[in-house]
Amino acid sequence: MADTAGREQVDLEALRRKYLEERDKRLGGNRAELPEFTGDLARYLVDPYTTPVEREPRRDRVDVVVVGAGLGGLQIGAALREVGVERIRLIDTAGDVGGVWYWNRYPGARCDVDSLIYLPLLEEVGGPLPEEKYARAEEILAHARRIAKHYDLYDDALLQTTVEGMEWDAGSAEWVTRTDRGDLVRSQFVILANGPLTRPRLPAIEGIEEFRGVSFHTSRWDHAYTGGEPGADPTNLHDKVVGVVGTGATAIQCVPPLARTSRRVHVFQRTPSTIGARDNHPFDKDWLASLEPGWQQRRMRNFIEVLYGGYPDEDLVDDGWTHVWRELFVNPEFRSLAPAELAAAKELADARTMEAIRRRIDETVSDPATAEALKPYYAYICKRPGFSDEYLDAFNRDNVTLVDTGGRGIERVTPTGVVAGGREYELDCLVFATGFEANEAGSSFTRRIGFDVLGRNHVSLAAKWTPGLATLHGLMTASFPNMFVQSAPSGQNTEPANFVHTLQENARHMAYIIGEVRRRGARTFEVTEAAEEQWVATIVDRAVDDAAFLEACTPGRRNAEGRLEARSPANRNFGGGPLEFYALLADWRSSGRLAGLALEPGGAA
Question: Quick check: pTM over 0.85?
């Protein structure tokens, strides 16, 4: 949590200049297209956790195909069970359910959101509650498995299976899904629940395929090389020199255990993250036992109210997210201000928060030059905030070196190491803590999910969305009957912190529609073009004009790596915020009219 109590004076004009100077360093750096996972780079996608299992291709029919078995797909499966859907087929490349928590098994991996609101369906599934404020990755994966077992989602699942294509068969009014295992699955409905953290991101660095030491992405952690079990410190690195590329949410978790166990660690930094205190701690067991039914939904709702201006009397989560959001965005002191005064007050509050974060670095990191290089100079929400009780301290160790590239990134990879700032750093092991592809230029939705979808009259989803996203509620799109997209790039309003809550609301909405279509004996539903056009117009009309803010940010996920010119006006979130968006969906359902959907009769009730 940032300590803003001091309310020190800030030279805003000087700070604005500094922020733009830091942004321009990144704009002058490496902006090449992201590499493809072909040739030698294909090994970065290999599953190191589950032994491949041979099986015969499946040629059958189910009610619903759900592509993705992460926390989004699992919540969809649970919601579909509640409306009586029997045959639900989860399809996932991974060897088990869990999504990103199947893949993220690197040392130190945890959620960075209060675990009691992040782990879904805790009350419904039962079992042990999280032990700590921020749950370990292995706890989250175990809970994902409990959800799958509780709702019998393993029965029809196809794991270790990658969808290669999906096409609408108008004659049978069914979707036909093809996979890399030769499967041909027919279903009345399909849901793309691949999630935003699906495709690992490798940086566009010259020579990345030439390194001859051991290298891997953090989502494919090589425990056979590093030693140690998932969640535990490595045991085999005492004589190894390790390079870590990246300083975001993943790196701030894996660097401390690497620092404790490696001979030397070089952390290659392009842009520093904000590092607030995490203040992780065990939950009081007696308090957990005292929670009354409905506690999780109340806690989730309270969290989003605190972040988006519901002004509840109590902050149930009470952490860095809620403290800073209340200071910067929903401060009661802002409520009576005129627009110009509000903008000035928010800028000052942001500057004070960032000054406190930079001051914490000075107070923690003993070497002044390293401390200065670790300081972030941009507005607080230009990047996803980071929280750690260990990351900054790691740089006080003699065996840890911060290699600050001044915003330009690594120059090239060699067979024996990495070149940065004109110097080669020889490495035994190279770890890419570079996250997943998001909305950056060159990474379309269909690229990230790995296949295209052909709808009515062979309309391609990739082609349809190339000019800009067009949906109803960010979940359905015209010309693609009986299809939902759980995590479309925009068109709704997602929570910046607890995305799992958004997935829950989406699952509830999709399951309601499927349940109603079946109950009414309809064969198909499809978004009308008029409803889609109206929703796109709503997105454009209600969009917050954030262009100037994002242009001032250093390049990153929020501003498409500094390429805002590629952003369509339709590719925005609903401007009313999550609270209003969730209420809009609930009102739409309660009306019972299925407004904007055309139903074709003839299906089984």
Answer: yes
